[in-house]
C-alpha cells in the first residue's frame, strides 16, 4: 500500500473497518484508557519497511518509510466511529492517515511527514521517563476537546 499521501478521512468505511496500527503512545494501555475510556482489543504486529523514529522536541514518535526496518506495534481493533474521530483530532496535523499492509492485512496508520531524527523511538524509555506527564497531557487535551465540542 501507499507509503506517502494525504490524510485519509477516518469516517470512510475502508478506514472504519480496518484496524489501527499503533506504534507509539497509542499502544500504551494508560494512554488509550485516558483518551477512550477503555482499552480496545489489540494484538502485537510488525510493519515491514517502516520505522518508528524520534521527533524533534516531541516525546512521541513518527512513522516513516525506511527499507530494512520493521516498526513494532499493535493492531487496535473494534474502534467505534466516535473513537476514530477522537483519535484523528488527537493526532498531530503533521501526520498522514494512510493504509498499509501489516502482517498480511490492510490496516490504517498515522505516518509522519515532517523532519525527524535519525534515531529509533524507544517505548520502554518513554514509559520510564515520560509516561506520567504524557498521560496528564492526554487528559488535559481531552478536557479541552470535550469543552470545544460542548460549545459548538
Structure in words:
Residues 20-113 form the Gamma-glutamylcyclotransferase AIG2-like domain. InterPro entries: AIG2-like, AIG2-like_dom, GGCT-like, GGCT-like_sf. Keywords: Transferase. The protein is built from five helices and five strands. The protein has helices spanning 13-16, 29-36, 81-90, 123-129, 131-151, and strands at 20-22, 41-54, 61-77, 95-102, 105-112. The protein has a three-stranded antiparallel β-sheet with strand order 1-3-2, with no helix packed on it. Helix 2 (29-36) runs parallel beside helix 5. The chain starts with 12 loop residues before the first helix and ends with a helix. The mean pLDDT is 93.
